[in-house]
Amino acid sequence: MIVVALFMFLFIAFAAGFLYFWGINPGEVTVFLTSEQSFTLPTSIMLVLILLIGLLLGNSVHIFSALTSTAKIWRGGRKQKKAEEIGVIYRSGVGRLLSGDLKKARTLLKKALDRDPKRVDSYLALASVAEQEGNTQEAIDLLHKARKLDPKGLEILFKLARTFQNEDRREEAMAVYKELLAGDAENRKAMRALRDLNIELGRYSEALELQKKIIKATSSGAKSVAEKQIMSQLRYEVARADLDRGEAEKVVDACRDMIKQDASFTPARVTLGDAYRQLNRASDAIKVYQDGYKALKKSIFLARLEDVYIGAEDPAALLSFYRSRMQEDKDDLLLKLYLGRLCLRLEMVDEGLQHLTDLEATGIDFTKLHLLLAEAHRRRNKIDQAVVEYQKALGIDSHLSLGFVCEECNERFDTWQGRCPVCKAWDSLVLPERKQIQDAKVAESPQPIPHGQREA
């Protein structure tokens, strides 16, 4: 009722205004359509006509805009509804994948892809299904399709590279990582993966260059310390390769710098000594090995010293070094072991036996010590004591027990048990040599071996 009254009021106001405007504008307006065609209207009617045409055009544009907007909303609603439906199917497929139901996961994810072939996450999930089923090539093909839709997608590239790695297709994996780094040069995850691949392939120089970038991009902390350790290891590998090529001078400089950076890094000290030996600087090599042992107490330095001195036919100088070191540190059991061994090599059996016996008295018990003791007793014609030491070295008891080993964790035991006490695996304890015996074949014409003799 109010709307009708308002409409009537507006109509009356418009009519009154029109009559007033017509009354004060009695003239006419002639409009030419062409040079020969025209029409003439009162000025007031012409103005009203123009106003009405303007209103008509404005309303038409408004109506068209409203219809277009309505159509977009309708289409958007349908698209959103479809996306929601596909999302439900996709999530169900991923759920099946996580639960291990690969067959159902494949069906659901394939359905999601059929309804939306441009959905990247569906390709990734379906690739995971294929990979778990053992269809690696299918997984790679699916990842390539996802890559076409999103060429720079990090998740796609990383998954593709890992899939190549799992198939030992390292060169292809490296190519993917390089492409990834071309788009994101600071991606440390990609740099580490590419570095590790280079290490596996023995390309230490390339790995070292990547490691330099990784350290530059790594902030301080525990991770930085670990990366610096890897840096030292790679520099060592590069130095070893240079030494193999005869570039000893270059290796000397590199190893000195490595020792300066980390004095506890044994490989750098050993390689420095090796480089000096390649340059025929034996005295420098000996000093490096001696200083290395004094600082780090590692047996490799003693082994290298023996190589140098015995090779130069100067065991007396080595013996002098061992004895002087023993006077400085009488509790150095590692040096005592090497000194006892050297004495045996030099037929200084009594002194060697004394050092080895001192070691055994501390409770140390390992095969090589018993073998050295057995050899010392044998050289002194103490056969019974030699036999005892040989038995200890071989792990033989009075019952000639063969013992057992766990097939899962390789722990050894004197008695059999139904369950391994270490790794808790059931029914895993077997004879240590079981596989060797099972794989052996009985000779077609075995020859009898007389008692007390051995086959030549």
TrEMBL record:
The keyword Cell membrane does not apply. It comes from the Bacteria. The keyword Repeat applies. TPR repeats lie at residues 120-153. Keywords: Membrane, Metal-binding, Repeat, TPR repeat, Transmembrane, Transmembrane helix. The chain crosses the membrane at residues 39-57. Residues 237-299 form the Bacterial transcriptional activator domain. GO terms for molecular function: metal ion binding. InterPro entries: BTAD (IPR005158), CellSynth/LPSAsmb/PSIAsmb (IPR051012), Rubredoxin_2 (IPR041166), TPR-like_helical_dom_sf (IPR011990), TPR_rpt (IPR019734). SUPFAM superfamilies: TPR-like (SSF48452). It holds the Pfam family TPR_19. Residues 404-430 form the LapB rubredoxin metal binding domain. This is Uncharacterized conserved protein HemY, contains two TPR repeats. It comes from Malonomonas rubra DSM 5091.
